## 1
Amino acid sequence: MKLVTFTDANATRVGSVVGEEVVDLAAAAPELVAIKARIAPASDLLAEAERTQDAEVFTFCTEHLQAGKKRGELAADLDEEFFAELLVAMLTGTSRGWVAARHRFDLREVLRRRTAFLFRAARSPEPPFDGPSSDNG
């Protein structure tokens, strides 16, 4: 089997060459995503695809974090690059944990909860409370 990387909808994917066509492995056989997580560190091709995908996620996150800071939704002193690295590490670690646990937890729900937690931590603080108004008589 010949494996290749290709870009589809601005995402780097891994495919298999069948004749003159490339078959998207994740779409054709979702269980291969779990296999990839187990063998990626030992495969130069899969490791490169994972690095490319992580870089794309990092760029996406950094751009949206910068926009969130400009809108005042995130703390002004948030280091966007560090936070994006943290998000990528959380996504990778959670996905690999899901594989190691043999899919015994709801991956989508755990990712949602962990991402929400990180963004709550990065949120812009509420305006300071100055105490009760002094003009209430």
## 2
Amino acid sequence: MKSLVVIFTLFFSQVSFASKCDINEDTILKNESFTNIFVGNVTKAYIEDFPEFRGSKRAVAEFELVETIKGNPEKLNFVYFVNGGHSIMLGQDHLFVTDDKGFSHLCSGSGVINYWPISSTSVRSHIYYRLKDKVVQ
């Protein structure tokens, strides 16, 4: 049986906020808080309480590391999403851009790659390849 793909999207804030993000490989590389850039295959995802953030909740993605572009993602066990709408697809590769604790910001560029039925992933995949080119240079 092929990998089970489950899509869930969290909207803790207005989706219109996402349109205010200017995400490209240069903005990702210039942001000093983005210490880890990597590809991981999501193996598990769930929502948990996160009282440290105004008593809110956070999405948690567990992953198998596929490729490291920058940083030390092998030290992370989870990627956390606390603000905004992110799609997390089980069994799919994701570009993750996180801080040193594994938190991904709404405007980090994190999300599923190489899943063409969703049009925004073609843009993210393009950013992934350009990031790889710039970091390798």
## 3
Amino acid sequence: MQEHATITQQEIAEYLHPIREKIHNEWFERLEKQFGGASRKMAFLQANRELGQDLFSLLLDKMKQRLRPAPGAYEALFRKIRSLDYSISDFFSEAFCLEQILEHCLRSCTGLNHQQILDGTALVRHMINEITWQIG
């Protein structure tokens, strides 16, 4: 990542926040294809989403530089991974799917120039990696 990024994590959050429902829906559609719509994995993901304790919600909180994520967000991710029905590999697949969706959304933002898209994409990857290292 560049030393002087042309976009901040708060600015990325401002672009993503208005379309967060669309992002969640597209992300979950991809995950349903991968995990199966009626699976226990999807039940974990949906429960976390409803409580604002899913990976995307946690990422938005970090981007907005909130000192603390939603109550129980990390604990919910830990519980999910420690269950018999969800593995660390599943979590990395979840993170990868989210990263793909967010990159697509950033590329679609009409208010960003090419360098901001590149920097924003790198920043999103970096922040998702930070979360996955804390979890995994």
## 4
Amino acid sequence: MAAIGGRLASVRYGANLIAGMGTWTLSGFVPDVQEATAFGDTVKTYVQAGIGDGGTFSFSGNYDPADTAGQVALNALANTDAELTNLYFYESTSVFWRVASGGKLIITKFGSPTFGKNALATISFEGKVSAKAMERVS
């Protein structure tokens, strides 16, 4: 089994690296599963029927107020009803995840910095995948 280290991972908004990020997570597609058990069945039966959920995403790292093409640009989208198609989650320099064609990414929690008396300031973003699932591009 091949293991992948996170050292080369990154998050990009369009072609721009979002500075300082150190963690990103995709929850994955969640199908809508319905119970289809009938009278006489002795074990519950389920089917994938209904509308699936594209999942969620999050990313976080060190706060950089000078990152005008990344952190600052994303925060500028707050209260604009923006739906993104150009947010990319890289696992290496050439392999990344993006929302599939026809889908959108909606940021649901914009970055607010967190400061500690003996730590670097951090920032985090969260959102929902809408209409399509994420896809891996290699």
